[in-house]
Design brief:
Elements: H1 2-27, E1 33-38, E2 41-43, E3 47-55, E4 66-71, E5 75-78, E6 81-86, E7 89-95, E8 106-115, E9 119-130, H2 173-197, H3 200-231, H4 240-261, H5 265-289, H6 314-350
């Protein structure tokens, strides 16, 4: 019993990790964010009233709200008044200084909204300030400091426009693909081991990890399509990353079809081991190299960054890395169960027992 328990601890741990990721991934709220600002065009030297639509805020609770516009090279514009329209909407009055820190006719401004309860919400280039020919309504100047203090740290996921709540899919879609690559690498390693030693046990391990990797790949495509529908508006688009990932997965699915087409165990093991190595090696240029040579909507390709900065902040890392580890452990568990089933099957065949 002790020996069995010593072999099972990591399997139980995978369940605990995935439960932690699943529960935490849905319970932790998003950080407050700025969804929309109207108007987006401000005239230097004039007074404006802005309507700022927020996300995941409770401004109707009575805390003082500070609103500023930061312009690089100049400083800050502080709102003269902030009125709460509802829990997720503000009406902001401010006067823009006449002098701009650029010789061009326009400059981008970052909108900052802050209060003690909700914390900071920042929207880069939320407004554009253009030069005005009319005299200034009011003599105002840039402020050197925002005069705001960072509040206590809260467990919140980053607010990223377009993604919104779907950023939680990072723990599933992205982590599934990472786990799939690990399972493929293990499968290829055992295929190489079989070609060197002709041991059918290595073939069983290689095929089992390959089958689980295929399942993970299909799950990755499904979660990716759902994510695309909620961010791009369609389940699939003519994107090089998506197309190459589909081609790579089809090549790998052909591995399973090839195994079912060959009946002799030794011949099947030799042929599919060679094909498995080819299929895994083909994944690298198809998924990681070719999409980077062209522009792509998918993060991480064609100049579109991914897994860095706000895309993967410290709070996301608390769940993203455990998700990868948990999925790798769970996938390995499933693969090892398939190895045991294959061993039982071969043993029954040796004894010529009908195992149907």
């Amino acid at each position: 019993m002790k020996a069995i328990a010593s072999q099972m601890w990591w399997k139980y741990l995978s369940i605990v990790i995935l439960l932690y990721v699943f529960v935490g991934g849905f319970v932790v709220p998003l950080r407050p964010g700025i969804m929309n600002t109207q108007p987006e065009r401000l005239v230097a030297g004039a007074s404006h009233t802005l309507v700022v639509d927020m996300y995941n805020t409770r401004y109707d609770m009575g805390d003082k709200v500070n609103v500023l516009v930061r312009v690089d090279g100049a400083g800050y514009i502080k709102a003269t008044s902030v009125a709460v329209r509802d829990q997720n909407s503000l009406e902001v009055a401010m006067t823009v200084p006449r002098n701009l820190p650029t010789s061009s006719g326009a400059v981008a401004g970052t909108l900052i909204v802050h209060d003690s309860d909700n914390g900071f919400a920042v929207s880069p280039s939320a407004v554009t300030i253009v030069r005005g020919d009319s005299p200034a309504v009011e003599a105002v100047d840039w402020s050197d400091s925002a005069g705001l203090e960072e509040g206590p740290w809260k467990l919140q996921f980053p607010f990223i426009g377009i993604l919104y709540e779907t950023i939680r899919n990072t723990f599933f879609h992205v982590a599934i693909w990472f786990a799939m690559f690990f399972l493929m690498a293990v499968s290829m390693a055992y295929s190489i081991a079989y070609l060197r030693q002709s041991d059918l046990h290595y073939d069983a391990v290689a095929s089992s990890f390959a089958y689980v990797a295929i399942v993970f790949g299909i799950m990755g495509m499904i979660t990716g399509a759902i994510w695309a529908k909620n961010t791009w508006g369609v389940y699939w688009t003519n994107d090089p990353k998506l197309n190459m990932a589909a081609v790579a997965l089809i090549i790998y699915v052909a591995y399973a079809i090839l195994r079912s087409a060959v009946t002799d165990p030794d011949q099947r093991a030799r042929v599919t081991a060679a094909y498995n190595i080819f299929a895994v090696v083909a994944f690298v240029p198809l998924v990681f190299i070719i999409p980077r040579l062209t522009s792509s909507l998918h993060p991480g390709n064609g100049g579109n960054p991914a897994l860095g900065g706000e895309d993967l902040d410290n709070t996301l890392r608390l769940f993203f890395y455990p998700a990868i580890i948990g999925l790798i452990m769970a996938g390995s568990w499933l693969a090892l169960l398939m190895v045991r089933l294959e061993a039982i099957k071969m043993r029954l065949l040796d004894f010529k027992i009908d195992y149907k």
